[in-house]
Predict the 3D structure of the following.
Amino acid sequence: MLTVVTVVLAAVVLAVLAVGMGYVLGWANRKFHVAVDPKVEALLGAMPGANCGGCGYVGCSEYAEALARGEAGVTLCAPGGVSTAEQLADIMGIEVDQACPYRAVLHCSAYEHQRLQRREYFGERTCGAANLVGGTQGCAYGCLGFGDCELVCDYDAIEMVDGLCIIDYEKCVGCGACVRACPRNIISMIPFKADRMLVVVCANKDNAREVKEVCEVGCSGCALCARKGPELFSMDGGLPIIDYEAYTPDHPDLEIAREKCPKKTLVFMGKPAEPESF
């Protein structure tokens, strides 16, 4: 009999506690409820949910909130591309400007066997760690080849070939994860105004003699491209820089500069996935 009473009493106590907790939770829900802007929910629903951070915000939710406040543009979602930008613009009641997708490009073309003054590296096999060790390779600007960019790419768009990052533009969505992972900052995002874009595949700003000592394929800094195409090319030390704002796919200076480049460091990248070879 005592056992039955104990069980019944325990059940009653649990039921009372459940009702009490339900009441408390209901009160807390009403008391601390934060109204969600329906526009934010609509914007979030139009996004792919990649939470890649490529837009510059911490996840899609923060980007959606910034959009709703009018603090961000609708073209920042690289994984969603143009279709997502159009949906976001429709929700915001604005017109979206014609936007080009941004894709990653690597400013280095030296495979491992083309890098000079290399020494055996015994440390952690990551670019981040190797970059902290001086003298891992002669060129202090070039790709280290340990594949940090490949590891962070959620879209399987990067493959390491002979120590060089190769980007598959059929898979790249432009999230920018590889840009953030590269300790030498030799991966950048550029607007792909065409399927294939001209890229300077070198990041070494040193003079020609110094470049030649550390790399077989590095830019010589001759500035022929800048002289032949001053509207698109300028020099930063011994390195040419392309003005992608002025860049148009049919600009006559592109082919002229590319053909005049003695080291072939001006390369069209895009589809097909691999850089063109010479």
Notes: Strands lie at 102-106, 158-161, 164-167, 187-191, 196-200, 233-236, 239-242, 266-270. The mean pLDDT is 86.
